[in-house]
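A note on notation is needed here, since sequence and fold are reported together in a single record. The reader may check this reading against the record printed directly beneath this paragraph.
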Amino acid sequence: MRAGATASQAASPTASPTALYLSLLALGALAGCTGKDKSEDAPRTQSELTLALLTDFETEDLPGIVTELLPYAEDAAADETQYEMEPPALSTLDDMTFSANVTESGLIGAALARRIGGGITGYAEAMAETDQQWADPAHYESWTRSIVEGDAAAFGGGEGTLRTDNQTMRIQSMWKFPYNTRKDYTWVDADGTQVIAFRTWLYEEGHSDDEVVKAIGCFQAEFWAETDNGLIWFAATWAETITPIGDEEFLRNEIADSLVSYIEATESHVTGG
């Protein structure tokens, strides 16, 4: 539910000319857009499934979404492709609280996947730690987590849901600002594959002391999957930020770089690398 919202915003998708980001998006378009009415039985595209991972996280459809998305994620992880994401319709995010100033047209999205080391339970255990600054020291001066709901021991053992509140001080270029989020994790059986799906959202705006940089909104959908070929991390982020540095393409690259930094630092923490 948007805090203080009075009307939903109309979507205004934007496109980047960068071929790197468009590669998988184009494949999804070829798979799902033929110029004819789409059959209800037709497979969902990677973009559709990624959006569903965010919007349908609390529904019984989540295991099926992850199961369908997993082959796409394995392909993306194999060649470390990153791609742009269309923004979610704000009306589909009514189970999350966020600023009334968030706009669909302002949300810039990027997604990627990586193969990572370690076992999935090691990541589950690390998510219950109070100090999470290790997860991305390049972008967070501090990160304190509290568990809102769930049993840390049970979650680390492979079952249940963990809901967390995260008080952070984020670093962006020469600025820093509070960046407070909810981050929820849940175990999923994706047709026999062990998965932890998780979802993040910025529940209040954060801005630098001089108000030059403002974080208006951010949503993130991810999963770890323990496949026959090792552990895969899939992540997608949509962010709306006011900053004097860079255009949309620059900001999309910055989102992707932040995801990579986050993935690498977390892997290092969990594996001791």
Q: What stands out?
A: The CA atoms of residues 108 and 251 lie 8 Å apart. The chain has six helices and twelve strands. Residues 4-38 have pLDDT under 50 and may be disordered.
